[in-house]
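does this look right to u?? pantoate version
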Amino acid sequence: MRVVKSIKVLRKLLRKEKLSNHKIGFVPTMGSLHEGHLSLIRNCRRENEISILSIFINPKQFVKGDDFSSYPREEKKDIFLAKKENIDIIFFPTNKEMYSDGHSTVINVEKLSTVLCGKYRPGHFQGVTTVVGKLLNIIEPDTLYLGQKDAQQAIILKKMIDDLNWPVKVNICPTVREKNGLAMSSRNQYLSDNEKKEASILFRSLKEAKHTILSGQRDSKKIIQSIRNLITKNSSAKIQYIECVNADTLEKLTILKGKVMIALAVHLGRARLIDNIQIAVK
Ligand code: PAF
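got this back:
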């Protein structure tokens, strides 16, 4: 396994692999690796000859009030875990390597970036698309691996790749959960044991909503209210949003039909948690 900090060195290494027609898979992360990341890495390893993991805490996607300075940084543990998973290359750039002085070009996916989380974290998705766009230009992978937990991020990145005609496949892998249903996230470290227990209500309420929809309920307002009730009754979480949207376009749904996604964001203790569930509704 190589740990590479320089774009130039990485490009040189990858040129050789490309000349040998090796398939390159890419897992972008901000480090603090957990089972969710490891499952992306395993899919990547299975489907490609060369697997690259990037670890870069991208300042441009943190907005005012976010946790940039306290975001977990676990370089040694991350390298250890990546090695255990047989990653070929870790790309671990510095801020300066990624953003030269006076960096002024951004990528913005309109509309999709302003709904759901985008409404509450303006500029966040522009930071994500800009950094992933740069990483894709540097690595030129065949396949990009993303998690379903960050469903909006995955949809926006897919749209960016499609709109900009980049020859990259996107593989969206299922959310990995704790035993109690809590979606794995680096930010779960902010939760106390008790908050972790409370947080199990998020997925439980989404599953219950799915069951109610599959039993015939089509009114999104009723579904949202039932999730809201369950969360407030069973936890101290402060709900930021609960929305029923089309799972491809992220458009709000009043009547639930087609590819439905219920997405939510809450604050619990120090953590902001997101989760979602998808349901095919006839
Ligand atoms: O999901 C993340 O960890 C980040 O948003 C990503 C995709 C690595 C971009 O910085």
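Residues 28-30, 58, 61, 128, 131-132, 150, 153 surround pantoate (CB under 6 Å). idk if thats expected tbh
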